[in-house]
Amino acid sequence: MSLTIAQIEATKQEFKENIARSGLSLDDLALVLNTTSEVIAQSIAMHPRRIEDNWIIRNFLMKYMADNGIEVVPFTALLGDYHDYWFLDDRVVERGLIG
């Protein structure tokens, strides 16, 4: 999935806003997702090691925020069900861990 420059910028902002709303730090996310804060930062800056990494972060944030009654800023490019995207390895996303 190739994103336009506008979509990349919007996704960066959506990650930033959702992380801020969640109250979680990059270290918190890294701990839960079995990686480092540097890898999280690289991913949300739209330079993930694997394309699935951003979906893992997105899915975790959406679930965490829903479970805690926190309003999610909708993602405009990372939309729908990841199973519908042929280029994503659904097994990697379902594992829910980056590391």
Keywords:
99 residues, globular, 5 helices
Topology (elements, then pairings):
Elements: H1 5-22, H2 26-33, H3 37-44, H4 51-67, H5 90-95
Helix pairs in contact: 1-4, 2-3
Strand content: under 5%
Q: Identify the overall geometry.
A: globular
Radius of gyration: 12 Å
> Structural class, from helix and strand content?
mainly alpha
- Total DSSP helices: 5
Mean pLDDT: 96
Number of beta strands: 0
Termini, distance in Å?
Answer: 22 Å
In helices, the fraction of residues equals 55-70%
Give the low-confidence spans.
none
Q: Main β-sheet, in a few words? A: none
Helix and strand sequence = HHHHH
Summarize the structure.
This protein has 99 residues and is an all-alpha fold.
Write up this protein:
It is built from five helices and no strands. By secondary structure, it is an all-alpha fold. α1 runs parallel beside α4. The radius of gyration is 12 Å and the shape is globular. The chain starts with a helix and ends with a helix.
